[in-house]
Amino acid sequence: MTRSLASIFFPILMVLSIMEYSFAADMISLAQSVSDGERLVSSSQRFELGFFSPGNSTFRFLGIWYKNIPKAVVWVANRNRSIAGAHGVLTVNNDGNLVLLDGTNSTVWSSNVSRKAEVPVAQLLDSGNFVIRDNKTMQHDESYLWQSFDYPSDTLLPDMKLGKNLKTGKEWFLTSWRSADDPSPGNFTTRLSIQGLPSIVTYMISAKVYRSGPWDGSNFGGTPVSPNLVSLSTVEHREDEIYYKYQPYNNPIITRLTLNHSGSIQRLIWNERHTEWGIVYSAPYDQCGRYGQCGANGICSINKTPICECLKGFRPDSEGLDASNHSWSTRCVKKRPSDCQKGEGFLRLVWMKLPDLIDFKFNEIMNLKECEVECLQNCSCSAYASATLDGREKGCLMWYGDLIDMEDRSGKGRGPDIYVRVPSSELVGASKEKKRVKIIIVASIISGMIVLGLVSCFVLRKKWKRVSVSGYALNDKKRTKTTKLLSVIPGMNILAALFSYITKKTWKGGQESCKENVEVPLFDLVSIATATNSFSQENLIGIGGFGPVYKGILPTGKEIAVKRLSKNSGQGAEEFRNEVVLIAKLQHRNLVGLYGSCIQGEERVLIYEYMPNKSLDYFIFGLISSPFMHPIIT
Question: Secretion signal: which residues (predicted)?
Answer without folding.
Answer: 1-24
